[in-house]
Amino acid sequence: MQKMRKRWLIGFPVLLIAAFVGGYFYFLSSDGNGPEEASDLPVPAGDKDPPLYSRPPSEDRLMQDIHQMTHQKVAAKQKWGALQITQNRIDEMIGTVSSGDYEHGDLYLDILGKWKDGDFTNSVKAHNAIWKLQRGTVGKAKRLSTTDEELKYIRDQFDDKYADVYRGVQDKPGG
């Protein structure tokens, strides 16, 4: 009886500490509320937009533009700046990076190449990598936006510029 009580007095606190540490690391790595896949909203062609660059942009400008595009796809406490993701912008940026000499060109091409293929699952990593290069301190992305969150962001930031692309996409409760 004494051995069993001793095991209980040692085992229970060890189990409790292990659960606490595991929970701490879980919440540190993820908020646990976001989708595991990027939203499936269509990406407009972008034929209503003028080109972004009349001459090759600086590294800072290019980085800022990609950063602002990620805001459409990620959930973050604060977002400064918005640039809508369009196929034309993705193509223009890939061409710009490919023909330029950018210190972080490989990072930009990795991000943009996946986006060109319609894969936005890298958006949290992309946002935070650029945010870190820009020495960000507030606004780290924690997760991908839900389809409803992204649609609301698009409507809030870009009005109805590409309303025809999003026509038929319904807001769903609880998105």
TrEMBL record:
The keyword Transmembrane helix applies. Keywords: Membrane, Transmembrane, Transmembrane helix. InterPro entries: DUF6241 (IPR046208). It comes from the Bacteria. The chain crosses the membrane at residues 7-27. This is Host cell surface-exposed lipoprotein. It comes from Bhargavaea ullalensis.
